[in-house]
Specification:
This protein is 18% helix and 36% strand. The protein has two domains: 123 residues, no CATH class; 41 residues, no CATH class. The protein has a five-stranded mixed beta sheet with strand order 2-3-4-7-8, with helices on one face. A two-stranded antiparallel ribbon has the order 1-9. A two-stranded antiparallel ribbon has the order 5-6. It has 177 residues and is of the alpha+beta class. 11% of the residues are buried. A hairpin with a 2-residue loop joins strand 2 and strand 3. Bound molecules: zinc ion (2 copies). One zinc ion binds next to loops.
Length: 177
């Protein structure tokens, strides 16, 4: 779906995207999700572009506490500059202070791939530590029971008495006696 830079007219391009997109590789394979996006690509200074639009998606994420899979709603607005990456000096220029809060992304070569833009924005919107609920109780460290669904019999007292450290303590006690 790549677009040649030279095909983008001075008045800009409007794109509507609605398709399944592979977002990232997870433990169980690739996570794909239906994505709806509208992108507006407008030429800016020095062969750069200004991107605005909106991306909506609801990928299935895995809760990092209880490991259950849950739909995570993403509805994010786009507003950033897309600048050509100088291939001679491939380090992106230092972030200019005073340029405002506008982010700058970079493209390489003579094409822009709107799906890459959308995918990148979605990955930015996905939390590093996804939680299916901020109050998720997680899994019991002793028996693995999902504490959101059931109470197990490993109460905190039992965990405190039987863990490896207190067993060691007992051994030291016995040696001293
Ligand atoms: Zn959870
Ligand atoms: Zn338990």
């Amino acid at each position: 779906m790549a677009i040649k830079i030279t095909d983008i007219p001075p008045e800009g391009l409007q794109l509507e995207i609605a398709q399944e997109l592979d977002l990232f590789e997870s433990g169980e394979g690739t996570t794909s999700a239906a994505v709806a996006a509208s992108l507006s690509i407008n030429p800016a200074d020095e062969s750069g572009f200004h991107i605005t639009g909106r991306v909506q998606c609801e990928p299935m994420l895995e809760c990092s506490r209880c490991l259950s899979r849950f739909p995570y709603r993403i509805d994010t607005k786009l507003n950033f500059d897309l600048s050509p990456l100088n291939t001679v000096d491939s380090t992106p220029p230092e972030h200019e202070i005073g340029k405002g809060e506008l982010d700058t992304e970079f493209y390489e070569g003579d094409e822009i791939d709107p799906l890459d833009i959308v995918r990148e924005q979605l990955l930015l919107a996905i939390p590093m530590v996804p939680l299916h609920d901020s109050g998720c109780k997680g899994l019991c460290p002793v028996c693995g029971t999902n504490r959101n669904e059931a109470d197990c019999r490993c109460d905190k007292g039992a965990w405190g008495k039987n863990n490896a450290f207190s067993v060691l303590k007992d051994i030291f006690k016995k040696k001293k006696e």
